[in-house]
């Protein structure tokens, strides 16, 4: 398998071939099971398009992060039957993390992509833990008969890896015995409004090597309004950044996904903010 760069690219990627890049951005416009608001498949392209508008100097980090090398790869093929898509996504991810040094940042697409991505990460990194930032627990073994549903995104990964959930404020009856059980530690949003003490708990509970999965609905809808199943009362921008900064600085973050951006016609806030988030996270690493 080789990587076929798409025409859609960060304006800055031409300075960094994949071999030299510190970060690889991978669009995964997968959308099969969204239950309410549609459009997650348009998320990756919208975020990349918005990224052209970012200033290259990051005012918080104080550097031009792009100089460390960012490459945007062509999208993972999502025009496949579900089984083949996940097999391909797993294989793609495995090749990427085995053959390059770049830290991958996957752009979704619906959250179920995390299921495929996690398989090779688990193989490569012993004692990997997951920081799961989301409004939803996503712990149903299956939803509407499908274990690959976005509502089941974290069930398989959390059976195998320690999973710390934050932002959670929507839990189904069939999930209530799965939160804070087994390998899952769940910090319900309403019980953890003090960001500093939440950060302490998260840092204590994560292992040294961390995969970060960010559903944009973990943020408050005022920050990330365009998403399929929004929930009130999510993280404010600077609180979330403080949390991500602490994790990126104190742990070894080996991969990231940012999922569930569903661009809408009325505004472009979410894709802009997601692009800024991704650039900022790179700066923290
Ligand atoms: Mn969610």
Q: What would the keywords be for this entry?
A:
single chain; 285 residues; alpha/beta; Arginase, Chain A; 8-stranded parallel sheet; 10 strands; 30% helix; globular; disordered N terminus; binds manganese (II) ion
Largest sheet: 8 strands, parallel
Number of helices: 7
Spans of at least 5 consecutive residues whose pLDDT stays below 50 are: 1-12
The shape, in one word, is globular
Q: In angstroms, what is the radius of gyration?
A: 17 Å
Counting structural domains, the number is 1
Let me know the number of strands: 10
* Helical residues, percent: 25-40%
Percent in strands: 15-25%
Top CATH class: Alpha Beta
Look at the structure and give the mean pLDDT.
Answer: 92
Give the full name of the CATH homologous superfamily.
Answer: Ureohydrolase domain
Order of helices and strands: EHEEEHEHEHEEHEHEH
CATH architecture classification name: 3-Layer(aba) Sandwich
Question: What structural class do the secondary elements suggest?
Answer: alpha/beta
Looking across the biggest beta sheet, what order are the strands in? 4-1-5-10-9-6-7-8
- Distance separating the two termini: 28 Å
Bound molecules: manganese (II) ion
Query: If you consult CATH, what is the topology?
Result: Arginase, Chain A
């Amino acid at each position: 398998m080789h990587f076929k760069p798409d025409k859609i690219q960060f304006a800055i990627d031409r300075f960094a071939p994949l071999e030299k890049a510190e970060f690889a951005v991978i669009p995964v416009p997968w959308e099969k099971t969204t239950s309410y608001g549609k459009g997650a498949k348009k998320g990756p392209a919208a975020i990349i398009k918005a990224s052209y508008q970012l200033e290259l100097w990051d005012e918080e980090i104080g550097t031009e992060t792009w100089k460390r090398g960012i490459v945007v790869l062509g999208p993972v093929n999502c025009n496949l039957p579900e089984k083949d898509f996940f097999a391909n996504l797993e294989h793609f991810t495995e090749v990427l993390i085995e053959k390059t040094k770049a830290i991958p940042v996957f752009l979704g697409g619906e959250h179920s992509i995390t299921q495929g991505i996690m398989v090779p990460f688990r193989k490569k990194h012993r004692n990997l833990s997951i920081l799961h930032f989301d409004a939803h627990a996503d712990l149903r073994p299956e939803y509407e008969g499908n274990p690959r549903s976005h509502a089941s995104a974290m069930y398989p990964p959390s059976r195998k890896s320690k999973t710390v959930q934050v932002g959670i404020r929507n839990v189904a009856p069939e999930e209530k015995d799965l939160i804070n059980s087994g390998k899952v530690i769940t910090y319900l949003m309403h019980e953890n409004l003090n960001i500093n003490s939440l950060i302490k708990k998260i840092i204590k509970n994560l292992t040294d090597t961390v995969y970060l999965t960010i559903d944009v609905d973990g943020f408050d809808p005022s920050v990330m309004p365009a998403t399929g199943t929004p929930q009130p009362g999510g993280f404010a921008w600077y609180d979330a950044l403080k949390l991500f900064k602490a994790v990126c600085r104190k742990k070894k973050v080996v991969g990231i996904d940012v999922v569930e951006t569903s661009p809408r016609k009325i505004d472009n806030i979410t894709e802009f903010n997601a692009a800024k988030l991704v650039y900022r996270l790179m700066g923290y690493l």
